[in-house]
Batch of 4 targets.
Target 1
Amino acid sequence: MKTTRLEAFSDGVIAIIITIMVLELKVPHATEFADLKPLLPVFLAYVLSFIYVGIYWNNHHHMLHCTKHVTGGILWANLHLLFWLSLFPFTTGWMGENHLASTPTAVYGYVLLMAALAYYILQRAIITQQGRDSLLAAAIGYDWKGKLSPVLYLLAIPLAFVSPWISNSLYIFVALLWLIPDRRIERALVTQDKV
Amino acid sequence: MKTTRLEAFSDGVIAIIITIMVLELKVPHATEFADLKPLLPVFLAYVLSFIYVGIYWNNHHHMLHCTKHVTGGILWANLHLLFWLSLFPFTTGWMGENHLASTPTAVYGYVLLMAALAYYILQRAIITQQGRDSLLAAAIGYDWKGKLSPVLYLLAIPLAFVSPWISNSLYIFVALLWLIPDRRIERALVTQDKV
Amino acid sequence: MKTTRLEAFSDGVIAIIITIMVLELKVPHATEFADLKPLLPVFLAYVLSFIYVGIYWNNHHHMLHCTKHVTGGILWANLHLLFWLSLFPFTTGWMGENHLASTPTAVYGYVLLMAALAYYILQRAIITQQGRDSLLAAAIGYDWKGKLSPVLYLLAIPLAFVSPWISNSLYIFVALLWLIPDRRIERALVTQDKV
Amino acid sequence: MKTTRLEAFSDGVIAIIITIMVLELKVPHATEFADLKPLLPVFLAYVLSFIYVGIYWNNHHHMLHCTKHVTGGILWANLHLLFWLSLFPFTTGWMGENHLASTPTAVYGYVLLMAALAYYILQRAIITQQGRDSLLAAAIGYDWKGKLSPVLYLLAIPLAFVSPWISNSLYIFVALLWLIPDRRIERALVTQDKV
């Protein structure tokens, strides 16, 4: 199988996921600004998930760019990632509609965690197939973001029962971590690793 | 018509099918873990159907990879397959929401059966067009999986009225059959056929 | 603009239209075979619309295959066609849910008619741009199917108030006309035209 | 990242947005022509939004056509545009279902404004990356349409509380501005700028 078709299919699924999330923003029956207010947490959850799906799409693309040959293992590791991403509309809707209540916030983090693990498994599958000297292995390097993110999700899940605001702050922090291409931090950490 | 456009269109439809199935996972209005419990059968049915659609996408790709020229017959055989796949969200939702009751489980199996037959018809249409010495005919070989699957679905449909658990075990078994690339079994069976 | 991107976008829209139509098949809350019975007209309407969208996708592909250059006019003629196709899920759902009542059946025919006209306009726009000696003009020939179909829709719309069965028979007849590649009829009619 | 994948992903998202908007056209339960009447404003809002999304798709394509290299900044500017476009189904549904009431009409205009700004930011990001002598900078020229549209939206938002009809007339006017390729006006305005 060529990488291009795996890419095209994944793009299709991710494009649909990112778009059907907006269906959780149910059109209110009344017509005042005040009627939008109960939608605010759904909207904010949508923004957060939109950014997460955008990050996954972006990283997924770069990863497949370094992949020449697709094996059955890579294909199913990819579908496994798409599976967890496909649950984003559900957890986003549940967290948003319940004004960021504890359990939905924890479940939201759990799906983020599983998506991160699925991404890691896919990365491993590609590196295994391509060899440790491959382009992908070199491009990823120490992958401190990939290692820190699941740890922060693991922290955020129980903390949702202390305060969902802590968990959501952690989710936002991880998103910013991936969003902002802070090369200084990256280089510093890489250097630190080397020391 | 070039195979690439048939592939691209099929990929699009399959990507949408695999994603809208998740819309059957309706966001609960309450916020406890217990409120997720009634969703468990819907979730499990979703997992099963996700795997099935993944298998179809995978096999479909390999089949079209061996196809050079697309005739009107192949095109409609392909749309016929997509038609039955498009019913997966409906049967998945019906079986899941009713906690795997007998009739929905039987209907789920019926749609699996029709999709398998549609796949078989598409395979025949391609081999007819390409000749019995074609790459596809060689790649498929005796096609014991393709022959065993409909038989197991046919068994599972009436057995749903004995116990839906038997039927669902059969559906899971068929999925694993396609999922696990057990070459030993495959080779053994092929050898057995030759003897 | 290259034809490929117009094709890809149209394919995407058509793939979504053909798939979201199935969302009108609402999952019943009860679990007997009898509970599927009220869904039968929705299902049949879905089958009919699925075939129609399949025909449009097929013909659309052949038409664009003969198109080299996309102008602004062609682009908007194409979006105009996609607009009417996008109303298929609505009219299919309305006709199906109301057991093929008169008005929904007439409206279903009206949208079929408008899609046929939009297709004709797109064809004209391409031929105008490519010249009357173009490949598309030659491929279409006298285009008796393209001319007969709107006439039959125009007949079917008022007849829906006599009996929706007549209209639906006409819709099915037109679908079969495009589905069955009866070259004898085609050639005969072409010859007749020449005489 | 190659431009083609950004294009393909954007096309996918835009194709889904343009199609799920039609889901706001809820199938009526009764079967008379009169039952379609309450849907008329939803339908008209759908037509308007369909045209807007079509314009964005068209312009987006031309813009990316002039783009060789995709940076992280361009990628996120593009996702930012897709985000605002993804809110079109919500605002279209809200405005349509409430018969073009003041607040929904103003919010509809606000999302149009944000999409226009997002488009402008994306354009800036591409020109910055490609240089002020780039093909895109030359193709856009003075970009009077791109500058006039946000001004008209800004006018339309408060005017919705005077009369939603004024705002909607402005939205239609902007759409026509982009739809009709009136080169005379364009050239005249460009000349005027030069004087």
Target 2
Amino acid sequence: MSELSKQLTFILELDRLKAVYRQSLVKTDNNRQENSAEHSWHIAMLAQTLGQYADEPVNISRVTHMLLLHDIVEIDAGDTFAFAQQQDLDAQEKKELDAANRIFGLLPQAQYQETLNLWLEFEAAKTVDARFAKAMDCILPLLQNMNNEGGSWAIHKVKKSQVINRNRHLNGLAPTLWTFVCEQIAIAVANGWLIDD
Amino acid sequence: MSELSKQLTFILELDRLKAVYRQSLVKTDNNRQENSAEHSWHIAMLAQTLGQYADEPVNISRVTHMLLLHDIVEIDAGDTFAFAQQQDLDAQEKKELDAANRIFGLLPQAQYQETLNLWLEFEAAKTVDARFAKAMDCILPLLQNMNNEGGSWAIHKVKKSQVINRNRHLNGLAPTLWTFVCEQIAIAVANGWLIDD
């Protein structure tokens, strides 16, 4: 199979991410569930828009690429709610690694390795780029829920401490955004959208 | 309003692109109509994957940014089928410019200007980056239709000459992709998915 054939097979496979539905709701489309493809677009736009708030040097092009591909593994592994039980989150990790190898493995060898490495960097959340990317992936559901009377938080009875822990990448990395997130969490608790625990 | 408030207002407004439905079908999700947000994600991934085929130096980060924002104007202007009547396409142009000013105008001044300029560059399709971005926006529906028994081409009785004209940006810019597209068009005509005209 030619390089181009492999690449186009990968691209057609990506279509399936449009059929992976998340817990987040699309308020502007009758509160239907959001799919992971449109979510990936939205957080890539978020990174392009909020790059200035990183206190350490962030490469927004790399962050954008990470965000575009971060959920592709869900084609095989499905979406797990961010606030699921720890055992479910652990099981998800193995499924996602297998998925990364299968799906990125559709690409030519060098591109496969490069894409896999970028995804692994995102998952590990150690580098500045990956931490900023993770932060974008956490801020957007917060914005969506705050704009939708608690959205998926309210439905799933999520706790304040869970949301704070999930947004921890912002602390130290983007102080303005961290302050904003903390303010929003306080409002959500006051409104009864998050459990005060 | 603070810079951050403006930026977050813009981000929340973007949610509405998930409710703009196109003529393309999502084969892997029961052939429902595709929305412009998930389409934008998919072509951004296409650009990241096919950058090597550009014969002139292309900045894939700029191309990706263009592709992420190229359809945002549809929030106000709606989607017009690529092969609509010329008078409808002309009317769309004015609506899209108004939309660009309103929606990108939600951003702080400098970011508004930068985003508007990038969108105008895409629309003008004169620079190498914009031509490559346009090419990505044309190849993906072709792939989707070829993988779906003609998809939206077959439904709307599209002509071969229309698809060739739409993909003309590839000619000279990315010869390998141009050859591939011409081959696919020939197959589509042979299968009766495109009208031989």
Target 3
Amino acid sequence: MRARDLVTDFPTVALDTSVYEAARLLSTQRLPGLIVVDERGLPSSILPGTQVLRLAVPDYCQEDPALARVVDEPHADLFLRSLSGRTVREALPREPRELPISDSDATVLELAALMARTRSPLVAVVQEGRLLGAVTLQALLDWAVAA
Amino acid sequence: MRARDLVTDFPTVALDTSVYEAARLLSTQRLPGLIVVDERGLPSSILPGTQVLRLAVPDYCQEDPALARVVDEPHADLFLRSLSGRTVREALPREPRELPISDSDATVLELAALMARTRSPLVAVVQEGRLLGAVTLQALLDWAVAA
């Protein structure tokens, strides 16, 4: 079993897609994360759902639970619903890091090691300079536990 | 909107649950992760799906993509399907870290900050020393993008 056997179509977003649109895509299509593509259609980043959420949280609340706690309920609601003004570009991590991208020949062991190491529930699969789609953690587990 | 309004029932596992059973639960119930409970039924850890997968990957392949690559396809398949002999206890991270657990009063901002900080797609919710269930990233995003 290889990446090409487990890959499925996966929606992509661009760097200038709004965070609201990205969140809507995650919500309505029940995706574990997003593939961000560059102008050539190749994956430039993989964004776990939790990191899309990060943009709804003001900087001063990011690291300090006590500061998130003092924001009252109406304002907390407002923050979470004010995702439209920002773009996916702003949600990307600042430091370079290993991306969960594999070629279509990757074995299930390579996919599992990559997901575990990058803590990403999806791996983007490329073949001959083209994005094929993604292997999700769900697809990998479904295969692993199948009789 | 508070944690108590978004919480849903969530299956739990024990420290001695087999990793195969944990993977089966993730797969069949399409869960983003697992709540591991102690003998009192209280959350002792939260295990993202990617970390359950980690136990199927031999130590020498965890950090080095080149070593995962040399394992041939039949053996790679075998590794991924040999989850039954190990327990959830072995899948837990060795270093102590912040757990995504909140009380039922937490606002959506606190939940979002906690998910972003711990990179966890679920938060376990406790009230008066009892586990109520979990708020998932999906439930939080569904609420945030709802008109």
Target 4
Amino acid sequence: MQQPGTTTTLSKEMQDCVDACMSCHSICEESMSSCLQMGGQAQMQIMRALMDCTEITRICADMMMRRSPMAAEMCRMCARACDMCAEACMGMPEDPLMMRCAESCRRCAEMCRTMAGAAA
Amino acid sequence: MQQPGTTTTLSKEMQDCVDACMSCHSICEESMSSCLQMGGQAQMQIMRALMDCTEITRICADMMMRRSPMAAEMCRMCARACDMCAEACMGMPEDPLMMRCAESCRRCAEMCRTMAGAAA
Amino acid sequence: MQQPGTTTTLSKEMQDCVDACMSCHSICEESMSSCLQMGGQAQMQIMRALMDCTEITRICADMMMRRSPMAAEMCRMCARACDMCAEACMGMPEDPLMMRCAESCRRCAEMCRTMAGAAA
Amino acid sequence: MQQPGTTTTLSKEMQDCVDACMSCHSICEESMSSCLQMGGQAQMQIMRALMDCTEITRICADMMMRRSPMAAEMCRMCARACDMCAEACMGMPEDPLMMRCAESCRRCAEMCRTMAGAAA
């Protein structure tokens, strides 16, 4: 039997990637709330990207934290969801929240791609 | 139409509660991974509490972030899930991870109870 | 040790409640997609109710299926989320999908209330 | 503006794939509960596969239902999660629930692969 607690430390790189996913998830949730309050057609297009991105960043962080054998593959998919969401958010350059969301998505995409490559 | 980004700032108290929920969610995911590696009967009992707690802290944070009208009610339920999980983790006092998990659950329970009361 | 598979059968009532939650979850997902395509202000208000309802019906079904000790409490909360979502959907009586969604929410609310009472 | 409800019907193939994902999700939740009750080392290995499979089948069904542009990609990933879970369940041939779970995973994997190919 495993010693209690011995294998629970994530590598620095993976912990940073988890943090990036969770930050991105959080700002996507806030952005969804903001889009719903504004309620225009442009916002609805962004909502679709946000809904995918918020779910996939969340599941990606969870899979890394529980050392899923599919975590690297989910990181690859998460990077693409973040790319799409960043692009959608860039369609509203006048909205500071969307700009912060795009930035968080891009950072998360980059870290997930590195993680996917490192684990492959 | 709402000005872009104007209503997106959470109160300090709510942001702290969101952070406590997300920290608790993270450590629950790590604790689940550890329990699965150890694999004893005691761990399996803790797993059930961890599975509820990790899901409910996550949905509770998300509902606060998107200003759900049911957020206060979910905070009340989250506090109970955290109480049960803390108690389960206390059954393994020799495991430092479980002790950290119990502590995180207790802190989250306290903040969720405050938030539920404040919003009620 | 438990015999394999011996305790895995849900009661008829609980299975029916799980099915009602999953049906409600499915139609909420479809309704969200429809609201995003239509994109008006009324739809955005409904979206908030749909987002809560789809998540809570899902987690409620999962908690019943895995025999969570908090399943009854989640059923109570699920009933309220379904009530709110049904009311929101009723705001669009000209949309057949929203009418079907409201009906599914009402049925799920009723079954969850029964289940919460039965388990309490 | 879109006519209410006009675009909400999924193709027969996609609806069948959604149903397969949701069935697989349900039986994975039941299997997790059973594994936790039995609590042996073999069960713990299966738990990891079940946890990935139950989350990915759920998100895959949701993404199809809300017409996510990433649904095909998630179907591909879901097929692999189901393959891994079926293989894990096959390690307990004496447990009827695990055998039904493996069968549900295989069927879901097949339908997701078809769906991923059809949408590509």
